[in-house]
Design brief:
Blueprint lengths: L3 E5 L3 E6 L20 E7 L2 H12 L4 E9 L6 E10 L7 E4 L10 E13 L2 E8 L6 H8 L26 E9 L5 E5 L4 H8 L9
Parallel strand pairs: 3-9
Antiparallel strand pairs: 1-2, 2-3, 4-8, 4-9, 5-6, 5-7, 7-8, 9-10
């Protein structure tokens, strides 16, 4: 596979993963990115590095940022979404939001997502998203829960949801990741927005509503 390398040393490879590449194809992947999510993706070269880095993910020692385009315009310029997440009983492919007060919330895991609006368009908002936990499909589920699903998301999007012109996948890109390496150096990795997503933004009209 011809993947662009952002960083490499004797322990680690950091790829700029394109959409369509399945992260499960890499036996020593440090973390998961959904198949249609692009951006910063870490693969260890040995088990010691793999365990060292995965431990940080488990202990919330990693800072991650995503760029996302959501359907509709959010009420707030920024906010925090905090819920429990678990597998959907109706559709095994999906995750679902559970509220702490509901009787079926037992055993579900807390999920927390911070977001900030970067730019408003007619019918869409471009966001910087910082997940504080690393649950499966967390960002996609959380914005669907707010009734603002990720643009182009076929699994969590609503029926008859409009999709921006030229967008062939969900608009979600892992743009930044900060982690400590086995040599105790703290490294930051960045990935520029993928070309197909840039093209999609060029076709959107800026919002004239300034609230």
């Amino acid at each position: 596979m011809n993947l662009k390398i952002i960083y490499e040393d004797e322990d680690l490879l950091v790829f700029d993963k394109p959409s369509g590449v399945n992260s499960d194809d890499f036996p020593k992947r440090v973390h998961r990115l959904d198949k249609d999510t692009s951006g910063v993706f870490l693969v260890a070269k040995n088990d010691v590095t793999l365990n060292f880095l995965q431990k940080q993910f488990k202990e919330k020692g990693v800072k991650k940022e995503y760029i996302a385009l959501v359907s509709g315009n959010l009420k707030s310029q920024e906010g925090i979404i905090e819920t429990l997440l678990g597998r959907s009983p109706k559709d095994r492919r999906k995750q679902k939001v559970f509220l702490p007060s509901s009787p079926d919330s037992e055993g579900k895991r807390e999920a927390k997502t911070h977001y900030k609006v970067l730019q408003r368009f007619e019918g869409y908002d471009l966001l910087r998203v910082v997940p504080k936990t690393g649950r499966k499909h967390q960002i996609r589920v959380h914005f669907a829960y707010l009734n603002h699903p990720i643009a182009g998301d076929k699994l969590y999007g609503f029926k008859n949801q409009k999709t921006p012109k030229n967008l062939k996948r969900q608009f979600l890109h892992a743009s930044f990741l900060r982690i400590k390496l086995p040599n105790n150096q703290v490294k930051e990795f960045k990935s520029e927005l993928a070309d197909d997503l840039k093209l999609c933004l060029q076709n959107l009209k800026p919002s004239t509503n300034h609230n």
